[in-house]
Amino acid sequence: MTEQAADMELSRETGQPSAAGAERAAGVTGTTAGPAIAAAIPRLRQICGPDAVLTDPLQLRTYECDGLTAHRCSPGLVVLPESAGQVAAIVAECARAGIPFVARGSGTGLSGGALPRADGVLIVMSKMRRIITIEAASRRAIVEPGVTNLAVSKAAQPFGLFYAPDPSSQVVCSVGGNVAENSGGAHCLKHGFTVHHVTGLEIVSPQGELTWLGDGTGMSPGYDLVGAFTGSEGTLGIVTKIVVKLTRIPEAVTTLLAAFETTGQGGAAVSAIISSGILPGAIEMMDALAIEAAEAAVACRYPEGAGAVLIVELDGPAADVERETAAVRAICEQAGSTEIRAAHDAAERTAIWTGRKSAFAAVGRISPAYIVQDGVVPRTALPDVLDKIAALSAAAGIRVANVFHAGDGNLHPLVLFDDAIPHACAAAEELSGAILDLCIEHGGSITGEHGVGVDKSRYMPKMFGADDLATMQLLRRAFDPAGLCNPGKIFPTPRMCGEVPGIRRDPHPLVAAGEVEQF
Ligand SMILES: Cc1cc2nc3c(=O)[nH]c(=O)nc-3n(C[C@H](O)[C@H](O)[C@H](O)COP(=O)(O)OP(=O)(O)OC[C@H]3O[C@@H](n4cnc5c(N)ncnc54)[C@H](O)[C@@H]3O)c2cc1C
After folding, report:
1. Residue whose CA lies nearest to ligand 1 atom number 5
2. Does the pTM of the predicted model rise above 0.85?
């Protein structure tokens, strides 16, 4: 026991450390940390070392939000572990003391998934950023969760390999965060999402046990727990090692930029390309407002006056790429393209991608504030849905810039507003919600890749019935019966999700029928 802990003042009623005594003993001043957290600090300092436990309110504020800044909350405490063993010990301590905990990677999430809790511990994974092995012969790598997405591809490049899922935030976002969000990216149309590239996960369970899901081959028998964990938004445990597949760098790549007068023409070209049997590495679209923003931010020199641009990237064996490039050109021309440019080398390719990859941030050049929405529609519904978004935008008098992974039907409408104007944010939120309603009406989804987090939990009942949500809860509770692991995320109401630790009072129909057991 540390000297501080030995000196701790005990509450007369409970015999437990009192809030004031525990906070004083732990050297916590001015935080809102409750007694349970304050009492845990000496042990957490033993586990991680004193410098890796942050209690200063100013330092804590650094972590108050992720990329979705509308939701903010200073964490009760931040810990920065350096090893899987430390993460396991931290989580075991939280489980023992009944303290909620949240994992955080790089904090680039756009749905408030890493939003901390004032009564909880935020476990920041950024010190765990080793690439443990690159096994070129078996085309896989084992990495720690804090390693950035792009760092994996850079490390694999000398072996002629790369890590295919490529979120636009790849320079900074962590592979652990990618696993939690099942992140996508421009090239996921052909190469698949994160879940298609992860074959094994070392995790710390919400009880603090270190264990492996999957055996690293992607072919282990039994339930697909790697699949269940990937995309679970940090609610089933904390990832401490990841086995990822590596893909061969393609022999040839051609990037085309096709300009159209309207997004409808661009959308029609997308459907025609896919129905012709060609599967490009990426098909991205930007509308006129998004092009204007990108032009202002990075001078990407896209064709002047374009109402929409498509970026189509073809990769693979050189002969296939040459044939498919000609076919895609013909399809775009037929759909009414006014100009088509091709990049054949890395510099030209970067020039085309710069506008697209900077699009979210670029919108800051044309609007003081904006909401990044993320929804999905079937590809064939793209022209119709884009027209309807334009109509909603006109009716509300709010500008919407569209940037999207067109090949996947994954829309990112950017709803622009001026936060200095009263109620402008609420009106933008309303329009943003109406766009999600459109996605659902057209058979799509409320999120393609940014996750539900806190931001979209209220939309979950629009997509799922009460029984569906309750069934998802059974999975969550199987991993985390105490409800301490990233509570308050994904599910809409306390009653539905049982965010208050404990089990539902009314039995789920499957439980009542004796078909499944509730813990
Ligand atoms: C400019 C910009 C562009 C983006 N482009 C894309 C894109 O193209 N595609 C896309 O999919 N997303 C995109 N995103 C969203 C975001 O980058 C991804 O969701 C990314 O995977 C988040 O990683 P992170 O390390 O920042 O995670 P965080 O934001 O820190 O956390 C995200 C979630 O993961 C959980 N988590 C983090 N680490 C762990 C761990 N080790 N174990 C368990 N749970 C954990 C957190 O609790 C939280 O729920 C973009 C974001 C920005 C700001």
Report:
1. 168
2. yes
